[in-house]
């Protein structure tokens, strides 16, 4: 458990930080893949066009903003979308940015 | 009329450009003031902590992304929130980011 990185409590979520996370198209793609599949996904299993070290940076930004929760299964770092927490603090935001199939990219 | 600057058609709106416009807190404040008052506001009448030239840049970014419409009344440049166009292309986005009074900044 000591390897689990820190996560903000929903009371610490800030719209500015969430928007700075989601303005990046790679990070928005990570969130979209989690939301679309409804599954937890290993860091190495996302379809994103960046190096592993760049991907790690993007995951950190998403985790620190409260968008994803990370945990280990063996040596694999897994990612969960914090959809319930986000919907509670920012109602409609993920729906408007991510979930709506007709949303124009 | 020749002084009216160009505006994108809603078919040209892009989520990436809209997010890049709204990630800036000053630009988000401009949009919030337009939405909250429901009025058209002169460039010089917004409550924003930036110089006139910086403000002009922010208005240009908002106009080019499709968030505001600008027109002249005499020498005053007026600003209108394109709320209907935005709601049509990005349903729920302005509501989630701007209009909800409980939204955490």
UniProtKB/TrEMBL annotation, chains A, B:
Transmembrane parts of this sequence: none
InterPro entries: ArsR-like_HTH, HTH_ArsR_DNA-bd_dom, WH-like_DNA-bd_sf, WH_DNA-bd_sf
Coiled coil spans: none
Residue span, HTH arsR-type domain: 7-104
Protein name stated in the entry: ArsR/SmtB family transcription factor
Source organism per UniProt: Nonomuraea typhae
């Amino acid at each position: 458990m000591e390897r689990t990185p820190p996560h903000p409590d929903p009371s610490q979520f800030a719209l500015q930080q969430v928007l700075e996370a989601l303005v990046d198209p790679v990070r928005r793609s990570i969130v979209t893949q989690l939301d679309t599949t409804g599954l937890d996904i290993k860091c190495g299993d996302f379809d994103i066009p960046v190096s592993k070290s760049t991907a790690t940076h993007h995951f950190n930004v998403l985790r620190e903003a409260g968008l994803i929760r990370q945990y280990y299964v063996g040596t694999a770092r897994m990612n969960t979308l914090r959809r319930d927490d986000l919907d509670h603090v920012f109602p409609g935001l993920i729906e408007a940015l991510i979930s709506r199939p007709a949303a124009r990219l």
